[in-house]
Amino acid sequence: MVNQPLEFIHNTLAQKVMFGFDQSAQHLQEEVQHRNAKNIMVVAGERELELAETVASNIEVEVWYTDVIMHVPLDTAEKARAIAEENNVDLLVSIGGGSTTGMAKAIALTTGIPIVAVPTTYAGSEATNVWGLTEAARKTTGVDSRVLPETVIYDSRLTLSLPVELSVASGLNGMAHCVDSLWAPNANPINAALAAEGIRALSSGLPKIVRDSQNIVGRDEALYGAYLSAVSFASAGSGLHHKICHVLGGTFNLPHAETHATVLPYVLAFNAPYAPEAEARAAAAFGTDTALEGLQRLRSQTDAPKKLSDYGFTADDITEAAEITAEKLPANNPRPITVDGLKTLLTAALTGEDPAILHHEPIRA
Ligand code: NAD
Q1: Whose CA is nearest to atom 11 of ligand 1?
Q2: What is the pLDDT of residues 98-139, one digit of tens each?
Q3: Cα(83) to centroid(ligand 1), Å
Q4: Is the full-model pTM beyond 0.90?
């Protein structure tokens, strides 16, 4: 990139970030006072409710909304919107993982009510203006500035209860945002810098969490890396990896974080030889000779998810998944992609083969 003239358009999304261990209750109180919010609706799933109650302990809550379902089914979104409007809600506070943030975004999308997001996983939805809804087994996503949380409150105390396995899968979901950003449609030097720092922070933090789930330095690094990953992704857009995972989640109902964690090395192996700058940038961030080596070292240190067959995907699904993905490909993927190429990639991910085999696959453009 340094050897050629720079030319790009970059949008920075406006958002306040408050970061501090065990400070979420205080930060939320300050934010509510600053905004003079009167009718607050807290969105938190049943499993996150206890955490949410501690975060909201200093504020008055008008409505508690707990019907949170992954990928936000449209009927639940409509119910939540009606409740928000009936109660004249003037601030949404989402406390939970990407599914919870997603529900708050669905409410904001039609009502325009601002969101303060308090994330408890590494999904990163809190730092993007992307919404997702599902209806009749089809996931629709879109970009709208109304769904971007105005404030994000990060508190790694809230992640101490996230089981190690889920922490690893979720952290690798963040890693996927970083790596895919490097060749996504709007990749530019600014989002590449954020992605590289995200790769460094996540690959430093996740092994610490695996060694000790209560390690605050590791938890902070992972949360910080997850934020950077999402800022980078929001700016760079969806690359090949996200297009594949979107189909696996939306059509085959595979679990979000685990799917991202499993598919990433295959997309990296597939694209890396055709994207030398991105590859070198990621390798440097991992501190290894090649990006794939860095990712695989991290995956082995963290005992990461290995094969899609563990999550309900079967050989019979491959053709359909490849064909649907092929309809939605990013125009500028560094390596030409065919349905056959996608089938090869998905077959390797299904069974957990060594991703390096994809380096040698013949390409039929
Ligand atoms: P999730 O929110 O469904 O959480 C996974 C599980 O972990 C849930 O059972 C939840 O209750 C539990 N959990 C969450 N935090 C916990 C904690 N601190 N301690 C213990 N348990 C906890 O999963 P996710 O991976 O965070 O989010 C996935 C969803 O987010 C998907 O729908 C995905 O499409 C969406 N997403 C959206 C964007 C975007 O930019 N719009 C980005 C990433 C993910």
Answers
A1: 47
A2: 999 999 999 999 999 999 999 999 999 999 999 999 887 778
A3: 23
A4: yes
